[in-house]
Amino acid sequence: MPTSEFELIQRCFVDQGLGFARAGVELGIGDDCALIAPLAGEMLAVSLDTLVAGVHFPLGSLSPLDSSAAAPALIANRALAVNLSDLAAMGAAPLAFTLGLTLPHDDAQWMSEFARGLLPLARQFDCPLIGGDTTRGPLAITIQVHGSVNALRAPRRSAARAGELICVTGTLGDAAAALQLIGAESHLGRRLAFSREPNNSDSDYLRSRYFAPSPRVAFARAAAPFMGACIDLSDGLLGDLGHILAASGVGARLDTLTLPFSPALSNTLDPEQCELAALSGGDDYELCFTAAPTDLSAVRDCAAALGLPLSVVGEIETQKGLRLSRGAEPIESPPSAYQHF
Amino acid sequence: MPTSEFELIQRCFVDQGLGFARAGVELGIGDDCALIAPLAGEMLAVSLDTLVAGVHFPLGSLSPLDSSAAAPALIANRALAVNLSDLAAMGAAPLAFTLGLTLPHDDAQWMSEFARGLLPLARQFDCPLIGGDTTRGPLAITIQVHGSVNALRAPRRSAARAGELICVTGTLGDAAAALQLIGAESHLGRRLAFSREPNNSDSDYLRSRYFAPSPRVAFARAAAPFMGACIDLSDGLLGDLGHILAASGVGARLDTLTLPFSPALSNTLDPEQCELAALSGGDDYELCFTAAPTDLSAVRDCAAALGLPLSVVGEIETQKGLRLSRGAEPIESPPSAYQHF
Q: Within its chain, how far is the Cα of B80 from the centroid?
């Protein structure tokens, strides 16, 4: 008799400790529904993302047939991280997540390693697995995260106002370089080219930026009171900032000379390629947000307390559209943002 | 320039009215997270299900390349219905749903029809679409539903007690017969055989039972105060009742002569085949629940008020295991429940 779905889930997810208890989760894995009790006065923020093998992570090096033991854990970590990043972009505190895992065949070892890959982030963000579905089919992962947020403080995409500064956390472009490094396509296709072959240390750094993005939850929770609009950078700064501009009915100017690059990126790409990676490479999962100039020092304090770089890269303007420059020199034809289809 | 994901979602889902406003939904489609405000004193019940083409619905007749205009709408309707059924099994009132849709290629018409197929149930249960993700890949649909429930009244799987009666709503086995009818495999594989070819009316009825299951939300909301444990029947009565017995640490006896069959099923299958379909066919999405004998008349009143058949099919017992009989005659080797892998 084959192992039942129920037993597999028990063994791989529950027994590895992913279904841990926490305040706000009344009932977890094992019933028709999980039950969540939001904090008094708070709302529930929810976000769902699907990652498909061969589209959202490289299939060649990460299929269930691959011999690399780390692969399922890397996919798992990334899948949960990009979802937690959506909570960060809303200023929400993680509460719990659900998982829809589609696997080509029964592979308890793959599932175990996948479950193990979820555990560090789940623990770090006190965000247990509370339910989901395991199905047979082409490898894909859907995660929905649930967070708690004071609705009045959630920095919505529609809240950007002319005169506010445009800020980004961390450094941009690393994830696109990582994909180039492992021979996979970023949102830029194959338009990136290394000017110097990365050394081991730079290579490891860039890979970790793609496979293990750091959801900026703590920063967002602290800085949300000072934010106008906020979004996380999944498609690249051009595309994602574009969503803020469209939702807020405003425009912006952006000086690409102020874009933050990591030493690893600057070591291996020419400046124009760094700029391309930052604007349209995507997958960095840093935050892009707006803040009034008078709130900038408060925002900087929040970042500094966490050792997180913070850069002002532009300004919201009344005139619609996005105006790019390198210092004083306008850029006429910016690269297009990533298109999903 | 290709149509962006954002525009597709706008056109197919939002413009068709799926993102309608309702109390409890503070922020819907279009931001990093949706915001849900549960009712005072209520908890949020959540459930996620993935449906994969070729596994959870027949691929041959329903692929995006198929010429049948109704197909995407049928898939959509079924995907939302089976999720709403999980809310029913928890006695929860639907609030909103999220959707992860993975499609092999950009097909606005397919998506439009899919969206149109979601609308009737979304409206009927006042359950708008509040967010999700559209990705490229092998056809699969993940839906998470969110409902509101008084946690003290939610009939958990672990709440069955010896002496309670085992009840089922509606009729069982119809969905397995429908799959047999369209040449697809049910949870039983191909073990069903029609003793008589169904006439058009019976055929239409059986198909509708598979493609358009009726989530028993209204009944469950009314009857929840009288229920012990409750589960919805996705894998077949044997498997699903088994989950209640395991979670509650009890056993049960079941008399198959009391199983409810539709006229369409009885017209086309021999009695033993009806029994097999009901016990292990799955996909009926009726409710199986327990109730104290003293609450049976109250439960019957709830069903009668909705014109819903209600059958008592067995009793919870202290002795573990499931004991099947046909009247007084014990059944020695029951068919195994559906295994996902």
A: 9
